[in-house]
Design goal:
Number of helices: 3
Strand order of the largest sheet: 4-3-2-1-7-6-5
Radius of gyration: 16 Å
Order of helices and strands: EEEEHEEEHH
Shape: globular
Distance between the termini: 25 Å
């Protein structure tokens, strides 16, 4: 496991899809300590911030094809190839956002400069994670 960790942070704007789209600042964060994940912190104006943990692969795949099951789904906008749609589903409801595909691609490219796709296991200590989860119950 590598010890020279890096964190990448980029703020982008997603539009909450509604009758009147609402822009929401989203802080995307990638940390080599958790190389499979991207943390997305949604900070809507006047509302409580919410963080989602997304698969880096889901973000990459969602730029090209419909992907995701369960809580998070992503796909290219069939009417505008500059946009992708990202949908979050919880027991309390759902939210759909439009995002500029290039913003997500630029963020992912920056993460690939640090950890190439398929190279995540060089940064992640599976044995330590399993021990930590067992200890936590």
């Amino acid at each position: 496991m590598r010890e020279d960790h890096t964190e990448i942070v980029m703020t982008v704007t997603f539009d909450l899809v509604s009758e009147h789209p609402v822009p929401v600042d989203v802080e995307l964060r990638y940390d080599t300590r958790d190389p499979f994940a991207v943390y997305a912190l949604f900070e809507p104006e006047g509302a409580r911030a919410v963080q989602w943990i997304l698969s880096r692969d889901l973000l990459a795949d969602g730029l090209i094809v419909r992907t995701g099951e369960g809580d998070v789904r992503m796909w290219p906008d069939k009417d505008n190839d500059e946009l992708v749609l990202i949908e979050f589903v919880t027991p309390k409801g759902q939210a759909r956002f439009e995002a500029h595909a290039q913003d997500i691609a630029d963020f992912l490219d920056t993460t690939y400069e640090v950890v190439l796709p398929g190279g995540e296991d060089q940064w992640f200590d599976f044995d330590s994670e399993i021990e930590r989860m067992i200890a936590a119950g």
